[in-house]
Amino acid sequence: MGNDPDVVVIGAGFAGLYAVHRLRGLGLSVHGLEAADGVGGTWYWNRYPGARCDSESYYYCYAFSRELEQEWDWSERYPGQAEILSYLEHVADRFDLRRSFSFSTRVVSASWDGARWVLETEDGARWTCRWLVTAVGCLSSANVPDIPGLESFAGEWHHTGQWPHEGVDVAGRRVGVVGTGSTGIQAIPVLAASAGHLTVFQRTANFSIPARNAPLSADEAAGYKADYAAIRAVQQASTNGHPFVISDVDTLALSDEERRSLFERAWERGGLRFRAAVRDVLADPAVNEKASDFIRSKIRTTVDDPVVAEALTPRDHPFATKRPPIDTDYFETYNRPNVSLVDVRADPVDAVVPGGVRLASGAEHPLDVLVFATGFDALSGPLLRLGLRGADDVTLADAWAEGAATYLGLGVAGFPNLFTITGPGSPSVLTNMPTSIEQHVDWIADLVTYLRAHDLDAEPTPEAQARWAEHVREAADATLLPQAASSWYLGANVPGKPRVFLPYAGGFARYRGMCDAEAEAGYPGFALRSRRRAA
Ligand code: NA7
């Protein structure tokens, strides 16, 4: 195939590995390009202390191979970064995928020349392909705040999503963490355990639920393996790709005591199961307020110092309207004598100085290590940095000047034969990721099969894309999600990013049904053009 396969897949994480496997299985020539020197995607880069998945291990994995499901053994309820990376390395070997990838190969531009995509990589190589499939992840473009003086810092600083492979020695040192999203909340307790002093710079207090991580017993693992068919069926029928059935209890109809007891049981189960126990938590403000108040009461009783507890209590957004973290000893960590909390909403960061961080008030916090747990330019960011140019030489940046727009999250008008796994406008980040990824890859494989059989090129029509944007907006507006003004779902975490609610909040099963209907109807949302006529 030289440098001219049928399909180029960008990325070798969960999405890229499965895309290469699935598309290769159709008899197509497929090649993957990956910036890292190995597989893993998110789990290759995010090696910060405490990095762990919030989905449970027995379902945060591929479902496409019954044998793989039975062969692989997970060791904990939630898989840690190293274990997920081992799993993906195993998948790459088991399905002989590495031979189809070039590693240490970053794509810097990709242009549609009227018949094929022409890609350039950082090392100057050129690839062409008929179909371009992006598997670049949703949370892979690091968001490092533009703080004056950062270059003058005499210590070391790192973004959690670009953590050094050799690790960072924090033992006995003065460590600062900026950010209290899912990442900060995972890293803070682990860093605090070995740092000399840990200073947390918090802009927005966050809700968090105890994960209740634990080793996975042999009996539990065997039970899941025996039950996989049923587990997968629940995932497919669910709103979020998790195998939980959402409670049908009307919490508002309960007495205060009954409701408290329901919340307590859910709190003990922990993790994302807490949310599944509270029906309508993202639909009904009154329900949400009860759940939010319950979590606030837990913060008050966990954190010893009432002033610190109050500063840690979220008041500016309803529970779960920002991606709700789950934790191991997060709030308890503030009871340690070597941990302090700094409210940078009240007293913002003014500059990084050689010795640490200086606030607007002039207060200085001396630091040896500064950790940015400041998140990502989510969903659109990883696609924008590929340097895509579609038909008529239009850049993706121009096409998305008013905000990311796609059809079904799977393709972009004006960008023929480009398919975006878990793109903006798909449910992706609101779901269990491998479940969404497999659904996308299978759907793209069917579309490519159809295009090959009929010798067609395809891109979404502008009308279908506009209808989808409207539907994505309506789906978000039917929930409380847009109420979190600073959420990365809205692009609000990146200065200058257009405010568009990015993921599709209408539910995974419903979305899957719409994708299936699109395929069954012969892809009416796509402009299909004969290649022979184009040639
Ligand atoms: P998030 O959820 O975007 O969290 C980033 C955190 O960093 C959040 O607390 C932000 O505060 C804070 N932040 C960002 N920029 C700044 C500046 N300039 N100053 C102070 N604080 C700042 O990213 P995560 O990596 O934790 O999680 C991303 C997803 O990965 C997660 O949701 C899971 O899906 C996996 P803010 O709330 O914006 O005020």
Task: Describe the 3D structure.
This protein is an alpha/beta fold. The protein has 2 domains: 7-141 and 377-534, FAD/NAD(P)-binding domain; 150-372, no CATH class. The protein has 18 helices and 21 strands. It has a 5-stranded parallel sheet with strand order 3-2-1-7-19, with helices on one face. Strand 15 (356-359) and strand 16 form a beta hairpin. Helix 1 (14-24) packs parallel to helix 15 (433-454). The longest helix is centred in the last third of the chain and has 22 residues, at 433-454. The radius of gyration is 23 Å and the shape is globular. The mean pLDDT is 97. The site of ligand NA7 has 22 residues, from helix 5. Ligand NA7 is lined by residues 139, 145, 178-184, 203-204, 323, 344, 349, 373-376, 429, 486, 488, 493. Its EC number is 1.14.13.-. Its cofactor is FAD. Residues 6-208 form the FAD/NAD(P)-binding domain. Pfam families: Pyr_redox_2. InterPro entries: FAD-binding_Monooxygenases, FAD/NAD-bd_sf, FAD/NAD-binding_dom.
Describe this protein with a few key phrases.
globular, FAD/NAD(P)-binding domain, binds ligand NA7, 5-stranded parallel sheet, 21 strands, 2 domains
